[in-house]
Amino acid sequence: MAVGIFDSGLGGLTVLNAAKSRLPDVEFLYYADSARAPYGVRDAEDIYQLTKAAVEDMWSKGSDLVILACNTASAAALRPDAGRGAACGQARSWRICATD
To answer: What's the pLDDT score for residue 92?
Structure first.
């Protein structure tokens, strides 16, 4: 199993390091979209499309699970059609898990 971790920059490295320390036998792929950061200045549709493209790229590179370590990207993924695998162009679906 390979786990992808996505962030619009480098902040997700904290999530990556924590996950690696707890799951040392798991392969990780880190995707930082630094070229388009910061995401906070973009509209929701743009953020959604960038996030969707990043997740699809991570799936194509072998990730079985992708963690959105970017709060802005996570919020944009909370749209009505985000959970439909067809919207992602693959037989996959999004699951959103949050902490308070």
So the answer is: 59
Q: Where are the domains of the chain?
A: 2-88
Sheet with 65-68, side-by-side order of all strands: 27-32, 2-7, 65-68
For domain 2-88, give the CATH number. Answer: 3.40.50.1860
Distances from the Cα of 52 to the Cαs of 13, 18, 20, 21, 77, in angstroms? Answer: 20, 24, 24, 27, 8
> Collapsing DSSP states into helix, strand and coil, what is residue 4?
strand
Block mean pLDDT (10 aa), the chain, length 100: 89 91 95 87 89 91 90 75 48 55
Q: What is the pTM of this model?
A: 0.76
Q: Which residues of 41-53 are buried (b: 16+ CB within 10 A; e: fewer)?
A: ebeeeebbebbbe
